[in-house]
Amino acid sequence: MTLAQFGQYPAARFAIAHISDTHLLADGARQFGAIDTEPHLRRALELLGDLEQPPQAIIVSGDVADRGEVNAYRVAKQLVETAAGRLGARVFWTIGNHDDRRAYSSVLFGEESEAPQDRVHELDGLRIISLDTTLPGHHHGELEPGQRAWLKEVLSAPARHGTLLVMHHPPLAMALDRVSHVIELDGQAALADVLRGSDVRAILSGHLHYPIYSTFAGIPVFTASATCSTMVLAGPERSYGVHDSGQAIAMLHLFDAGAGGMPEAPVTHTVLPLAQAPLVIAHRFAEFAALEQMTHAQRRELLSRHRDRDATDDDGRVHAWLDDAAAAPGAGGTQA
User: Fold this and answer.
1) Within a domain: residue 4?
2) pLDDT at position 278
3) Could you tell me which residues come within 8 angstroms of residue 73 by beta carbon, excluding any fewer than 6 positions away?
4) Burial class of 76 by CB neighbour count within 10 A (0 to 12, 13 to 18, 19+)
5) In the chain, how many domains are there?
6) Of the candidates 85, 84, 127, 77, which has an alpha carbon nearest to the alpha carbon of residue 105?
7) Residue 223 pLDDT class (50, 70, 90 cuts)
């Protein structure tokens, strides 16, 4: 899908959905006995169908099943792969500390194994590495020396459009979350030695149940929020805990080098909340066709501050500026 360019940047070469920590349970069980996690995943997948530029891939960065149950993986596989089929997207799984290697590998890959679940995928010239940072029976993460050696070998030859590294435990500092230092990724300095100077364009993680961003060995690190439940880092009476709100997913966009006139290849990671609330202002994507026919100067004038006003139709939606776009003189002109 090619989108008209409205500013300095063209459409991204890759649009990838980042979902994490679904924590599905079998047989109708609820997380902490209270949270029904399956509807939240269903909502996340519905949201992807509402995007103007649909994702080419869906990445799930771990903790697919809360208790590592076979039936939970079956539900996850059915829901995610069905949604991916509708979108024309591929699915890439990564294991997390709540997952069970045998059940995870058996259901999602058709090969039961207790070995580290490290895999390499390719998406139109973009290499995607799923790295298993789990230590069975524990919630913190680590990499075996053999895994680091394997990763170094994989990265020894660059991919055409670079590499995404997906690992459940994020390699970063958690300034607001001292408790999670106990379950952090061990051996981060050794991993940095492997990644520094490689073609890895971004690291995608989960684990924390809230979004946080950093850099690691000069590489952007993006941690997605959870679809199951989220962490309250500043609760009432200086508390810390879990609540059944604020769930979100993210969209990763990878641009080509030179996009926007910059020498770098831009990478963005945009949070998409799952909350459903009444829209105060809504603009339908189909109506953007009028903007596409205008010059850049005409579009900028149309959206200028001095033209702002509150014009609401019977549906409670503000469409005035789009109506103006359709009627603007020269709307059929070429773009500046």
Assistant:
1) no
2) 86
3) 24, 64, 65, 103, 104, 106, 107, 108
4) buried
5) 2
6) 77
7) very high
Whether residue 179 sits in one domain with residue 38: yes
Q: Do residues 99 and 65 make contact, with C-beta atoms less than 8 angstroms apart?
A: yes
Q: Which tens digit of pLDDT belongs to each residue from 279-305?
A: 888 778 877 888 888 888 988 887 776
Q: Are residue 242 and residue 316 in the same domain, yes or no? A: no
In a domain, 290, yes or no: yes
If 0-12 CB within 10 Å is exposed, 13-18 middle and 19+ buried, where does residue 271 land? middle
Does residue 227 lie within any of the structural domains? yes
**Are residues 247 and 230 in contact, defined by beta-carbon separation less than 8 angstroms?**
yes
Q: Are residues 318 and 188 in the same domain?
A: no
* Structure tokens given for 229: 């439940």
Domain identity same for 213 and 111:
yes
Q: List the structure tokens of 161.
A: 């459009």
Rounded CA separation 119/164 (Å)? 12
Tens of pLDDT, residues 102-138: 999 999 999 999 999 999 999 999 999 999 999 999 9
> Residue with structure tokens 């989220």?
230
User: What does the mean pLDDT of the chain come to?
Assistant: 90
- DSSP letter (8 states) at residue 121: E
Q: Which residue has the higher pLDDT, 42 or 264?
A: 42
Q: What is the pTM of this model?
A: 0.91
Q: Residue 316's pLDDT band (boundaries 50, 70, 90)?
A: very low
Shared domain for 81 and 116, answered yes or no, is: yes
The secondary structure of residue 2, as a DSSP letter, is P
Do the bridges between strand 119-123 and strand 248-254 make them parallel or antiparallel, or are there none, so unpaired?
unpaired
In angstroms, the Cα distances linking 178 to 30, 39, 301 are 27, 30, 49
Q: Is the pLDDT of residue 203 over 90?
A: yes
Is the pLDDT at 229 greater than 60, yes or no?
yes
Higher pLDDT: 320 or 70? It is: 70
**Domain of residue 306, residue span:** 285-327
Token pair 């070429």: residue: 334
Does 266 fall in a domain?
yes
